From TrEMBL:
One of its GO terms (cellular component) is transferase complex. Residues 1-16 have a biased composition (Basic and acidic residues). The keyword Ribosomal protein does not apply. WD repeats lie at residues 595-629, 631-672, 674-715, 717-758, 760-796, 803-844, 846-887, 889-930, 932-971. It comes from the Eukaryota. This is Nephrocystin 3-like N-terminal domain-containing protein. Residues 1-21 are annotated as: Disordered.
């Protein structure tokens, strides 16, 4: 159930203060609602909407209803929306939270939901229509079949719909399901203010339920006869005020307060808090309230506005405060209503630069409208109507909060605090060899070094920036922050495991009207963080400096300012590895753990995956169902997996420094783990005959193992002086090639481990990619030095000069099927084809992409090349001339991350950050069908099955999907 990402603060009995009705009040209304809840006739409406103006007591009634339903064991779930709490105002939390509670209410529902989540773990991030179908309707259908609830109907209570952002998205999915009786026996109770976003979705007329065909009963709370409401308010005021001995109050004065309240319970509640909020002042405050005069108004706001104004006037009166103290009080109030999320008095004091005692004094003086939560210590408003009052000048007058001004103040405060507190290695992590979670007392280190105010600023500066009007001063502040502190902000987001939020903030900043310099820098930073989020750098904060910074300095020059922070000479991973971590597919997440590697079996019937949960899994490629239990044995992340040529065995490499071989069918390990490496295993591969396994590791060595026994065949292949990034057998299985961060390529005798000649020297930077030619006579390598090199695989002699032409890192290289040509992709936004014999560029670079080329592939016949790019397009090129074949494929709306040809070369598949997979006619560029939709996160990797009938895709939504390549339907 942890996959549901439910809100813990939304239920009626947790989170913010939620008080029920005073005894013997709202009796008629509650009785009518309970009558609806317990009406089990077939024509009874399954939905009930209670609508009322602000302050009429909707939430209090909803709380009482929850308690009454609980007493009768009829409360199935509750969700109290709140604009103050992020998880209670974001619409995508509502259905998962209801499903989570229903799973605890009904065992049948829970068991069914669990099975659904095992098959589709990413449902919590889907759109409401999918959530509704998979998380509520299907599990409830299983409950219906048990006939357990034939005699009574459980109720779901959802309060304050109007305080939830984009609530119509949920209602558009939920209300039709209610009206079409797709969840018979389950009832829904809603409350909200009047408003089109709610009423247009409920599609009910303004009348009591009595029309056939309407399945959501509606009730307008503010239309209740005033005498009935005031009778309840009178009972409430007597109950609350007459218990104070210092307050002498007559029935006439009670009636005066009742008359002032009109139909607004919030007026009465605020009056009680105000009168009793300062011991010894009760009588004086009573007279002040009684002397307030309000003319009747249609919107019912003047009474509460007058009361709020009186509360603030007393708290900031000149007799009690100096003009400076009054300014402080108003700034505190404005901060409470303007922060992105509720904050503590300490955080407010740092944001405003005030003494914490002054902030606490202000909050204490305003106990009738503000309160400090006992659990989290943060400051909240009692009611949303107070924020409504403060933000409208015509209602609040001199107390008005001009958001255009105060948001600038908070934005500046965020940057000031971050500039003061952010610094290198903020939590004093002792070693880059430890995962963050392995550092002793890591939680204590974070708590002591990342203050509450710094955490708020790191999470919220983008929110405040997005609400400001950009001027040159703001651009200067942002430019300085990017140059001096941005890397340390990213470090904090690493430590707090908030890289996804980091990307959201950078995305928000990029939407602001910035100068070109700021925009370019933020764009590059966004790409860098994306790579980190997609790769295994997460949870390894020191590698932000060790593995990322040295690599991105060329593209993001500002980071040269930080090159001396750690003594490192390019010991980090390459771009290819940052994005894919030495695996053919990246970030394919199942069971909420990152999948670092996936591969089809030789017959295309199964998929193997390796994961951060330390396991290997085999899946049915057609159904997506797991085949057997996870293969357990590794004690750290699995980084690379592959099938043997006959499909009978699987090899896995792990960050626990071992290699393991498994029986594909049983999942049992074949022998003990292959132990011998003293660093992370980065790359593994079977020999062509399946009898041996080669592994490369971050202990700078290569090893060959007997695939049957696990015994090492010979000694370690030693010679590299830095991490081994890539290993591969020659086509005849006699040799092994390796590429390393020591800038060299080496060839080894696969049987003896003896190096065949000297290392191939010539690259001046990390070697990112190596591969044999189809005949095994040549090796091609790509490097961060922007060059491609071809070597004689026997002698190590370079065949000609380096292929120069790229102006950015070479990220991918491949031979054509006939071995005559080499294709390379680069960070300079181009694709190039070279003569494998002469090194001459065959034509000009394939220019047309306006951003990084992320993926290249050659068609099976060698005649065409496909490329995907960060410029959102897919392009096909004539491999001989370099001419684009047709226009770019432009249907994606975000970066293209992966491309591949079908086995017959007739189709191209592409995956994108727009969350879709698309299939194109390779000749015309026309899409074969609509995009394959289903992923709720970026698609990171795509591939055809060997027979071309299926497509597998991996995504940042924690799932792997298999699609019918012809129809686009998920299999």
């Amino acid at each position: 159930m942890s996959k549901l990402n439910h809100s813990e603060q939304a239920p009626h009995d947790v989170g913010q203060k939620k008080t029920p009705c005073t005894d013997n009040t709202r009796v008629t209304i509650l009785s009518d609602i309970m009558e609806w809840a317990q009406n089990d006739s077939s024509d009874a409406p399954l939905g009930y909407w209670m609508c009322g103006m602000a302050g009429t007591g909707k939430s209090t009634i909803a709380k009482s209803l929850c308690l009454m339903l609980e007493e009768k064991e009829l409360l199935a779930a509750s969700f109290f929306c709140s604009r103050q709490i992020a998880e209670c105002r974001e619409y995508h939390h509502i259905i998962p939270t209801i499903a989570y509670q229903l799973a605890h209410y009904s065992c049948t529902f829970g068991e069914t939901l669990e099975r659904i989540l095992e098959q589709k773990p990413g449902l919590a991030s889907k759109e409401p229509a999918t959530q509704m179908k998979e998380l509520l309707i299907k599990p409830w259908d299983a409950v219906i079949k048990t006939k357990k609830f034939e005699d009574y109907s459980p109720v779901i209570v959802i309060d304050a719909l109007d305080e939830c952002e984009d609530i119509s998205e949920v209602l558009k999915a939920m209300v039709p399901a209610i009206q079409n009786k797709q969840m018979i026996g389950l009832k829904f109770f809603f409350t909200s203010r009047p408003g089109k976003s709610v009423s247009s979705c409920l599609k009910v007329e303004r009348k009591t339920f009595n029309s056939e065909g309407i399945h959501v009963q509606n009730f307008y709370l503010h239309d209740v006869e005033e005498a009935l409401v005031q009778d309840d308010i009178k009972k409430y005021l007597k109950d609350q005020l007459q218990k104070f001995q210092n307050l002498q109050i007559t029935d006439g004065q009670i009636q005066g307060l009742v008359n002032s309240s009109g139909k607004l319970f919030i007026y009465a509640a605020t009056t009680v808090k105000y009168i009793t909020g300062n011991p010894g002042w009760e009588q004086k405050r009573l007279h002040k309230v009684l002397n307030l005069s309000q003319a009747p108004d249609e919107l019912q706001t003047k009474a509460i506005d007058s009361l709020y104004s009186e509360v603030l006037a007393e708290a900031t009166s000149t007799s009690r405060q100096t003009s400076e103290e009054k300014k402080i009080s108003l700034q505190v109030i404005h901060t409470v209503v303007c922060t992105a999320t509720p904050v503590t008095c300490k955080t407010i004091s740092h944001l405003l630069g005030y003494n914490i005692q002054d902030v606490q004094a202000t909050v204490d003086n305003l106990k009738s409208v503000l309160y400090i939560d006992e659990k989290d210590g943060k400051v909240y408003t009692f009611h949303a109507s107070f924020s409504d009052y403060i933000f409208l000048a015509e209602r609040s007058g001199e107390n008005h909060c001009d958001q255009s001004i105060h948001q600038v103040l908070l934005k500046d405060a965020c940057f000031k605090i971050m500039n003061e507190q952010l610094h290198f290695n903020i939590c004093n992590l002792p070693s880059s060899f430890l995962l963050d979670k392995e550092v002793p007392d890591i939680d204590k280190r974070i708590g002591e070094n990342i203050t509450s105010e710094l955490e708020y600023c790191c999470f919220s500066w983008g929110h405040h920036l997005g609400k400001c009007i950009v001027d040159e001063g703001m651009r200067k502040i942002l430019r300085t922050f990017i140059h001096k502190k941005m890397i340390f902000w990213i470090e904090v987001m690493f430590l707090l495991d908030k890289l996804s939020m980091c990307l959201d903030i950078l995305g928000t900043a990029l939407k602001v009207k910035l100068d070109e310099e700021n925009k370019d820098m933020l764009t590059q930073l966004n790409k860098m963080v994306t790579i980190c989020a997609l790769g295994n750098i997460k949870g390894r904060t020191p590698h932000l400096y060790l593995s990322v910074l040295p690599f991105v300095m060329k593209e993001i020059p500002i980071f040269n300012n930080f090159s001396n922070l750690m003594e490192v000479k390019k010991t980090g991973r390459t771009l290819k590895q940052l994005g894919s971590w030495n695996t053919p597919s990246t970030v394919l997440c199942l069971d909420c753990h990152e999948v670092t590697s996936v591969a089809f079996s030789p017959d295309g019937e199964r998929i193997v995956s390796g994961s951060h949960d330390n396991t290997v899994r085999v899946w049915n490629a057609r159904t997506g169902a797991p085949e057997g239990d996870p293969f357990q044995g590794h004690s750290h992340w699995v980084t690379s997996v592959a099938f043997s040529p006959d499909g009978e065995r699987i090899v896995s490499g792990s960050d626990d420094n071992t290699v393991r071989v498994w029986n594909t069918k049983s999942g049992t390990p074949e022998g003990d783990p292959f132990q011998g490496h003293s660093g992370w295993v980065s790359s593994v591969a079977f020999s062509p005959d399946g009898e041996r396994i080669v592994s490369g590791a971050y202990d700078n060595t290569v090893r060959v193992w007997n695939a049957r026994t696990g015994a090492p065949e010979g000694d370690l292949f030693q010679g590299h002086s830095n991490f081994v990034n890539s290993v591969e057998f020659s086509p005849d299985g006699e040799r092994i090639v390796s590429g390393s961060n020591d800038n060299t390529v080496r060839v080894w005798n696969a049987k003896t481990g003896a190096p065949q000649g000297d290392p191939f020297q010539g690259h001046s930077d990390w070697v990112t990619s190596v591969t044999f030619s189809p005949d095994g006579e040549r090796i091609v390598s790509g490097s961060v030095d922007n060059t491609v090199r071809v070597w004689n695989a026997r002698t190590g002699v370079p065949q000609g000069d380096p292929f120069q032409g790229h102006s950015g890192w070479v990220t991918s290289v491949a031979f054509s099927p006939d071995g005559e040509k080499i294709v390379s992709g680069s960070g300079d936004n181009t694709v190039r084809v070279w003569s494998a014999r002469t090194g001459a560029a065959e034509g000009d670079p394939f220019q047309g992409h306006s951003d990084w080329v992320t993926s290249v592939a050659i068609s099976p016949d060698g005649e065409r090349i496909v490329s995907g790019s960060f410029d959102i397009t897919v392009r096909v090129w004539n491999a001989r001339t370099g001419a684009p074949e047709g226009d770019p494929f432009q249907e994606h709306s975000n970066w293209v991350t992966s491309v591949a040809f079908s086995p017959d070369g007739e189709r191209i598949v592409s995956g994108s950050r727009d969350m879709t997979v698309r299939v194109w006619n390779a000749s015309t560029g026309v899409q074969d069908r609509d995009p394959f939709q289903g992923h709720s996160g970026w698609v990171t990797s795509v591939a055809f099955s060997p027979d071309g009938e299926r497509i597998v895709s991996g995504s940042f939504d924690n799932t792997v999907r298999v699609w019918n390549a012809r129809t686009g339907s998920p299999e």
